[in-house]
Design a protein that fits this description.
Elements lengths: L17 E6 L1 H4 L11 E2 L1 H7 L1 H14 L3 E6 L12
Parallel strand pairs: 1-3
Antiparallel strand pairs: 2-3
Helix pairs in contact: 2-3
Protein backbone atom coordinates (compact mmCIF):
# COMPACT_ATOMS: atom_id res chain seq x y z
CA UNK A 1 0.00 0.00 0.00
CA UNK A 2 1.41 3.36 -0.99
CA UNK A 3 -0.97 5.64 0.91
CA UNK A 4 -1.65 7.69 -2.24
CA UNK A 5 -3.62 7.21 -5.43
CA UNK A 6 -1.50 6.15 -8.40
CA UNK A 7 -2.75 8.66 -10.97
CA UNK A 8 -3.91 11.47 -8.66
CA UNK A 9 -1.13 11.37 -6.06
CA UNK A 10 -3.78 12.29 -3.46
CA UNK A 11 -3.67 10.63 -0.04
CA UNK A 12 -6.15 7.79 0.41
CA UNK A 13 -9.39 9.01 1.91
CA UNK A 14 -13.16 8.74 1.53
CA UNK A 15 -12.83 9.13 -2.26
CA UNK A 16 -10.48 6.14 -2.61
CA UNK A 17 -11.48 2.74 -3.93
CA UNK A 18 -10.21 -0.52 -2.51
CA UNK A 19 -8.60 -3.08 -4.81
CA UNK A 20 -8.22 -6.70 -3.74
CA UNK A 21 -5.84 -9.09 -5.47
CA UNK A 22 -6.75 -12.76 -5.61
CA UNK A 23 -3.84 -15.07 -6.37
CA UNK A 24 -5.16 -18.24 -8.01
CA UNK A 25 -4.09 -20.15 -11.11
CA UNK A 26 -7.49 -21.82 -11.23
CA UNK A 27 -9.37 -18.50 -11.04
CA UNK A 28 -7.49 -16.74 -13.85
CA UNK A 29 -6.86 -19.70 -16.16
CA UNK A 30 -7.74 -18.77 -19.75
CA UNK A 31 -8.82 -15.20 -18.97
CA UNK A 32 -7.34 -12.15 -20.74
CA UNK A 33 -4.90 -9.99 -18.78
CA UNK A 34 -4.39 -6.24 -18.48
CA UNK A 35 -2.21 -4.29 -20.91
CA UNK A 36 -0.98 -2.06 -18.08
CA UNK A 37 -0.33 -4.51 -15.24
CA UNK A 38 1.37 -7.71 -16.40
CA UNK A 39 -0.52 -10.85 -15.44
CA UNK A 40 -3.52 -9.08 -13.90
CA UNK A 41 -7.05 -10.12 -14.81
CA UNK A 42 -9.19 -7.00 -14.50
CA UNK A 43 -12.05 -6.88 -12.01
CA UNK A 44 -14.62 -6.46 -14.81
CA UNK A 45 -13.46 -9.70 -16.44
CA UNK A 46 -13.47 -11.64 -13.16
CA UNK A 47 -16.91 -10.39 -12.17
CA UNK A 48 -18.38 -11.25 -15.58
CA UNK A 49 -16.99 -14.79 -15.33
CA UNK A 50 -17.78 -15.27 -11.62
CA UNK A 51 -21.08 -13.66 -10.56
CA UNK A 52 -20.39 -14.48 -6.90
CA UNK A 53 -17.38 -12.10 -7.02
CA UNK A 54 -19.62 -9.43 -8.50
CA UNK A 55 -22.09 -9.87 -5.63
CA UNK A 56 -19.21 -9.85 -3.10
CA UNK A 57 -17.92 -6.60 -4.62
CA UNK A 58 -21.39 -5.05 -4.54
CA UNK A 59 -21.94 -5.99 -0.89
CA UNK A 60 -18.57 -4.58 0.25
CA UNK A 61 -19.01 -1.45 -1.86
CA UNK A 62 -22.32 -0.80 -0.11
CA UNK A 63 -20.93 -1.69 3.34
CA UNK A 64 -17.81 0.48 3.07
CA UNK A 65 -19.28 3.31 1.01
CA UNK A 66 -16.55 3.15 -1.63
CA UNK A 67 -15.84 1.01 -4.68
CA UNK A 68 -14.39 -2.41 -3.87
CA UNK A 69 -13.02 -4.50 -6.73
CA UNK A 70 -11.29 -7.89 -6.96
CA UNK A 71 -8.53 -8.39 -9.54
CA UNK A 72 -6.89 -11.74 -10.24
CA UNK A 73 -3.32 -12.92 -10.66
CA UNK A 74 -1.77 -16.28 -11.36
CA UNK A 75 0.27 -17.80 -8.54
CA UNK A 76 3.47 -15.82 -7.87
CA UNK A 77 2.46 -13.07 -10.34
CA UNK A 78 1.21 -10.44 -7.88
CA UNK A 79 3.50 -7.40 -8.15
CA UNK A 80 5.55 -6.50 -5.09
CA UNK A 81 4.58 -2.83 -5.39
CA UNK A 82 2.69 -0.47 -7.67
CA UNK A 83 3.37 -1.73 -11.18
CA UNK A 84 1.11 0.32 -13.44
CA UNK A 85 3.17 1.21 -16.48
Amino acid sequence: MTGTGYSSGKPFGPHSDIDFFIESDQLVSGLPTSDKIPGMVKPRVLMEKFPALKEWSKQWTETLGRDVAPAGFAKDAVPSGPQIR
